[in-house]
C-alpha cells in the first residue's frame, strides 16, 4: 500500500502512530508533583488568630522583628500531572517538578499522608522545644511550651520553632531581640541535640521568604547550592548546621555582620 502513495503521503501515514503515542503520553498521568512557593508564618506572632508559641512557667519577652518559617505548596498526591505540566514546570523559576515519592510517601492515601505529615509536625514541635530548652540549659525549670501552626505539616519548621522559643525566653542573651528587629526566614529540621537537617525545596522557600519581606534566610548548609540557584535579590543566605550556630550568626548579624558566613 505504501508503495502506491507519494512520499509526503507515506510519511504522514507513518507519522500517525507516533503522533498518537505522543498525544497519549502528553495526556497520561505521570509520577511527579509540581511545587511552588508556599505560605510563610511568623512564629513570634499569631497564625489565624492564635499565638504560634505559648509559654508558661517562666517570664517571656516582648519581641520585635519576625522569624518566618517557610513552606512549599505541592500538587496533591492524587493530582494528575501530565507531560505538559512537567515541561512547563521545568522552564519556570517559580515552580519545581519533583518525583511524587520524594514529596509524599509512596502508596499512601491522601488521608494517610495528611495524618503522617501532622504526626511529623507534632513530633518536630516537641523536639524543637527540647532543643531550645537544652540550649538555654532550662530543661529542669518546669517550662511548658505549646506550639500551634494550622494547616502545616512535616518537620521542616523545627529550627524556626527553636529560635522562636529562645527569642521569647532569652532574646540575644543581653537584652536585645534575636532578630535584631529584622524579618528573618529559614528552614531546617532540628534534633534534640540541636543539629539542623536538610529539608528540600529551599529554592522555592527563598522566594516565599523574600515575597513576605525577609532579608535574611537561614538554610541548612548542605543545601546552600540549591538555595543559591534561584536566590531572590535582597535576600542574604546564612548557612547553619546547629541551633547554637544559628543563634550565634543572628547575634553577630547585629553586632558584627561581616563575621557572619554566607553560602
Question: How would you explain this protein's 3D organization?
Answer:
This is Lon proteolytic domain-containing protein. It comes from Streptomyces phaeoluteigriseus. InterPro entries: Lon_proteolytic, Ribosomal_Su5_D2-typ_SF, Ribsml_uS5_D2-typ_fold_subgr. It is built from eight helices and twelve strands. It has helices spanning about 5-25, 85-90, 100-105, 110-135, 160-170, 200-210, 225-230, 245-255, and strands at about 30-40, 45, 50, 55, 65-75, 95-100, 145, 185, 190, 195, 215-220, 235-240. Helix 7 (about 225-230) links the parallel strand 11 (about 215-220) and strand 12. A six-stranded mixed beta sheet has the order 6-1-5-8-11-12. A two-stranded antiparallel ribbon has the order 2-3. It is an alpha/beta fold and about 260 residues long. The chain has a single domain (about 35-70, about 110-260), classed as Ribosomal Protein S5, domain 2 (2-Layer Sandwich). Helix 4 runs parallel beside helix 5.
